[in-house]
Amino acid sequence: NLTGRLSDVIKTLKGEARLTESNIQKALREVRLALLEADVALPVVKDLIARVKEKAIGHEVMSSLTPGQAFVGVVHQELISIMGGEKEDLNLSTTPPAVILMAGLQGAGKTTSSGKLAKWLIEQKKKKVLLVSCDIYRPAAIHQLELLATQTGADFFPVQNGQKPGEIGAAALDYARKHHHDVLIVDTAGRLGIDEAMMNEISELETLLNPIETLFVVDAMQGQDAVNTAKAFSEALPLTGVVLTKLDGDARGGAALSVKHVTGKPIKFTGIAEKLTGLETFHPDRMASRILGMGDVLGLIEEAQRSTDEHEAKKLMQKVKSGKGFDLNDFKAQFQQMKKMGGMSAMLDKLPAQLSQAAQNVNVDDKVINRTEAIINSMTQQERVKPEILKASRKRRIAAGAGVSVQEVNRLLSQFDQAKKMMKMMNKGGMSKMMRGLKG
Ligand code: GDP
Ligand code: MG
């Protein structure tokens, strides 16, 4: 699976000081497979791999990261940039009514998304919205939209018998102008596959209505097939954006990359449920994490990058490695590091479910972090560096100063001792000894 592949990537690069052409070969292959498994189209995968390679080689590895983490970080960044980097908003800056034309295959989610969009515009943007359906082939589809209009509080423009799509569109636009609607959403008919008659029909509508947004609606579950559909629609129409639907299914998000790559147009919304509230604005960074399938581990990496003072981190690592000279000041610094990263609970949120469970069992919560800091703050420098001088009277003074009990001071000191022992063990006997130590 994906997460497995990426942790393999991290392992592959263990112990490397710098990312080089030769040591990232295997990692690149894993990423390539991971992307294909996520349903990203082959040409997109190739392009992405080339970019990652270029960015990764010679990449400086921060002391707070392993080379594997740094590499995955590069992959993540490139995924984001291939999806357009920043989130892009719906454009409504035109003389009202702003026309939004919905295009896409049958079943992609055009009608549902029209309803969701109407709700979003009414509730979030306080707009007056008119809905119209040009799907004259399926009376049920028109009724479906009418129902959505009722549910969202949008106005609905009814179709007269025998009207052609162009006539319906023109009449609706005229009505929207007269009734001061801010937005006119035009739902259209789709076909099961790319079809010339359909393309001609929607092109004519586009020319006639001159929409500010022409949104290509595509089903994320289509995976690789989304590429061909996206290509056909972007060649026939001046698309302005994409709505990627059905991401609540087991779609792995690869379509997001492919569609952006092929059309060159930003994804503006995602459909995440059948119901009317199931519409979200699109965030490239979140989608990149989804494609990598790693929860928000990457967020954690970024957090570390931001909050670590490189020099401090190096010094601390050195001490942790040697176990020498590690005192209560360093112990406090470790806890402060944790706090900078948003505390234990924020860190737990970002870990994948399994890891998070394990971390919770260790039982370090934010209160403990704060208390630890308070206790160490109440110690003199001498006490921090030489904790063995801490006898009963000093402990009582510290406890009073920190507003805790003497037992808590003792607990902290024994935690510190354990941490120190652990470091020594790691240093002497390596991991296996440490594991034995933990069991016993
Ligand atoms: P259209 O032919 O393009 O108009 O597609 P519809 O809007 O009629 O949607 C086709 C089916 O997909 C319907 O059953 C919708 O309820 C469903 N659907 C649309 N968007 C989503 C979504 O984001 N999530 C889920 N789970 N279902 C969706
Ligand atoms: Mg429809």
From TrEMBL:
> Which species is listed as the source?
Nitrosomonas aestuarii
Name the gene that codes for it: ffh
Q: Per the database record, which ranges form the AAA+ ATPase domain?
A: 96-244
UniProt remark on domains: Composed of three domains: the N-terminal N domain, which is responsible for interactions with the ribosome, the central G domain, which binds GTP, and the C-terminal M domain, which binds the RNA and the signal sequence of the RNC.
What Gene Ontology terms for biological process does this UniProt record contain? SRP-dependent cotranslational protein targeting to membrane
InterPro entries to which the protein is assigned, alphabetical: AAA+_ATPase (IPR003593), P-loop_NTPase (IPR027417), Signal_recog_part_SRP54_M_sf (IPR036891), Signal_recog_particl_SRP54_hlx (IPR013822), Signal_recog_particle_SRP54_M (IPR004125), SRP (IPR004780), SRP54 (IPR022941), SRP54_GTPase_dom (IPR000897)
Q: What is the lineage of its organism?
A: Bacteria, Pseudomonadati, Pseudomonadota, Betaproteobacteria, Nitrosomonadales
- UniProt-recorded name of the protein: Signal recognition particle protein
Annotated Signal recognition particle SRP54 helical bundle domain residues: 1-83
Give the SRP54-type proteins GTP-binding domain ranges: 97-293
UniProt family annotation:
Belongs to the GTP-binding SRP family. SRP54 subfamily.
Q: Domain of life of the organism in this record?
A: Bacteria
Cell location: Cytoplasm
